[in-house]
Amino acid sequence: MADMQVDPRAFYYPNVAYFSGTSKEHAREEFVREHVLCHIIAGELRFTEAEKDTIGKAGETYLFRRNLLLKCEKRPLPEGPFKIVYFVLENEFLQQYALKHGIKRTGIHTDHKRFYSLIPNPR
């Protein structure tokens, strides 16, 4: 990895992506193939899942489960562009992490939420 050349104008690695834009994007359907953690840095992210609208605001973080169909709309605010960072958590990576750290399944989960809003835990 030390030899890898990165274009200083872009920020993209296979499992991490940063997006910034000043124009409002019309809502479009996106299929989330892997678990995705996304943090909204600036602007708003409006997403619709199963007819339920949610508007994520700057500073909020969401975890989307894999195999999810969402309709997303990126919304910049008048004071600046929309900015978001995505972390793709591939299933194989999560399985290897669980094995390495001794994490075991604790039972059958009945909570089938397709996305979760993560609340910061300041220390």
Structural class of the helices, strands and pairings?
mainly beta
Strand order of the largest sheet: 1-2-9-4-7-10
Specify the number of helices: 1
**What is the tally of beta strands?**
10
Major sheet: size, sense and barrel closure? 6 strands, antiparallel
CATH superfamily: Jelly Rolls
* CATH architecture descriptor name: Sandwich
Task: Specify the overall morphology.
Answer: globular
The low-confidence parts are 6-12
Mean pLDDT score: 82
CATH hierarchy, class: Mainly Beta
- Portion in beta strands: over 45%
Span of the ends, CA to CA = 32 Å
Radius of gyration equals 16 Å
Report on the structure:
This protein is mainly β and 123 residues long. It has a single domain, classed as Jelly Rolls (Sandwich), CATH 2.60.120. The chain has one helix and ten strands, in the order E-E-E-E-E-E-E-E-E-H-E. A six-stranded antiparallel β-sheet has the order 1-2-9-4-7-10. It has a four-stranded antiparallel β-sheet with strand order 3-8-5-6, with no helix packed on it. The model is unreliable at 6-12 (pLDDT under 50).
Summarize, please:
The chain has 123 residues and is mainly β. The chain is built from one helix and ten strands.
